[in-house]
Each structure stands twice: as structure tokens, then as C-alpha cells.
């Protein structure tokens, strides 16, 4: 399994997931830059994602929805804040309404995805920071950790296919 470590830091209101992939940094970057590839691995396997907009550039945004096994759609929004291709991008992550606007009353986070060569592998570090410990706990109660880990664990097989 690619995920090798998950750290929850209540004082810093953050969750960090570290994974290693059998690929180059450039190949992993391609996955995140191409919405059709990203759809294959983003979200838990039973909640496939569809990206309706994906612009991985500073100031760009990504709008997507995940579809539940029952057909319900859950929307999300990324506002890209920085891009250092192919090693890192940062974004604000929101639950969204059907118009892809930030949903009222649901936690948002500041995220950083970074990729570093590690011998013949890539080490990816995924960090999400929330406004409060309560916001972190709310998304953990929603299954964010399990969903993220199952999503990330799909990536290695996709990269080598």
C-alpha cells in the first residue's frame, strides 16, 4: 500500500498523509494535472469523482463532484493558491453546493500536496489544515481519513498501468 503514515495533530488542526509511489515526480504530477486521469483515483473507490473544471495553475480552480453508490452527488471546490510544477501545489479545499460555491457551515481547509524523488520512488506528502480542532474532528467524523487513504492507495496501480 502506498500510504505509509497518517498523522493527526489536534493542536495544529491538521492531518498529514505520506505515501510512496513507484513512479517519477513528473508522472505523479501528470496525474494531478490531467482531470481525466485524476478522476480514476480521486475519492474513495465507491464514490468516483467527475471533474467539471480543473485548472492546476495559480489562481485556477477545480470543480468536481463525487457520486455515491446510491447516485447522490457531493460537490467540492479547490481554489489553487500556488503551483511549483512538478513538486508542489497548494489550494483551499471546500465542500461545495450544486453551483460549486463554498457550502455554508461545512469546514474548509488549506491543503498542500508535495512530491519529492526518493531513490526510484516518489514520496508524496498531503497536508490539510483546518481553522479549528473542531473542524478537523468534524471531517474525521465524516470519514475523511479513511476516504483519503483509500483514494491515495489507488494511485500506485494506476501509475504503473
Topology:
Blueprint: E1 3-9, E2 14-21, H1 25-33, H2 35-39, E3 49-54, E4 61-67, E5 73-84, E6 88-96, E7 109-118, E8 121-130, H3 133-141, H4 144-152, H5 155-160
Antiparallel strand pairs: 1-2, 2-8, 3-4, 4-5, 5-6, 6-7, 7-8
**CATH superfamily heading:** START domain
Mean pLDDT: 96
Q: What count of structural domains?
A: 1
Helix content: 10-25%
| Portion in beta strands | 35-45%
Which sheet architecture does the biggest sheet show?
Answer: 8 strands, antiparallel
From the 3D structure, determine the CATH topology: Alpha-D-Glucose-1,6-Bisphosphate, Chain A, domain 4
Q: What is the total tally of β strands?
A: 8
Uncertain residue segments:
none
Evaluate the radius of gyration. 15 Å
Can you tell me the CATH architecture?
A: 2-Layer Sandwich
InterPro entries: ASHA1/2-like_C, START-like_dom_sf
Family: Belongs to the AHA1 family.
Protein name: SRPBCC domain-containing protein
Organism: Kocuria carniphila
Structure explained in plain terms:
The protein is α+β, with helices and mostly antiparallel strands. It has helices at 25-33, 35-39, 133-141, 144-152, 155-160; strands at residues 3-9, 14-21, 49-54, 61-67, 73-84, 88-96, 109-118, 121-130. The protein has an 8-stranded antiparallel β-sheet with strand order 1-2-8-7-6-5-4-3. Strand 4 and strand 5 form a beta hairpin. The longest helix is centred in the first third of the chain and has 9 residues, at 25-33. The mean pLDDT is 96. Belongs to the AHA1 family.
Amino acid at each position: 500500500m502506498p500510504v505509509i503514515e497518517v498523522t493527526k495533530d489536534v493542536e495544529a488542526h491538521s492531518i498529514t498523509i505520506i505515501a510512496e509511489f513507484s513512479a517519477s515526480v513528473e508522472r505523479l504530477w501528470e496525474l494531478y494535472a490531467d482531470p481525466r486521469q485524476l478522476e480514476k483515483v480521486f475519492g474513495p473507490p465507491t464514490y468516483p469523482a467527475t471533474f467539471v473544471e480543473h485548472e492546476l495553475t495559480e489562481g485556477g480552480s477545480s470543480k468536481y463532484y463525487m457520486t455515491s453508490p446510491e447516485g447522490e452527488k457531493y460537490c467540492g471546490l479547490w481554489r489553487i493558491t500556488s503551483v511549483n510544477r512538478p513538486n508542489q501545489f497548494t489550494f483551499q479545499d471546500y465542500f461545495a453546493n450544486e453551483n460549486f460555491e463554498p457550502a455554508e457551515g461545512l469546514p474548509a481547509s488549506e491543503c498542500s500536496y508535495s512530491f519529492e524523488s526518493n531513490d526510484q520512488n516518489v514520496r508524496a506528502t498531503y497536508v490539510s489544515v483546518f481553522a479549528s480542532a473542531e473542524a478537523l474532528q468534524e471531517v474525521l467524523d465524516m470519514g475523511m481519513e479513511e476516504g483519503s487513504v483509500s483514494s491515495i492507495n489507488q494511485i500506485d496501480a494506476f501509475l504503473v498501468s
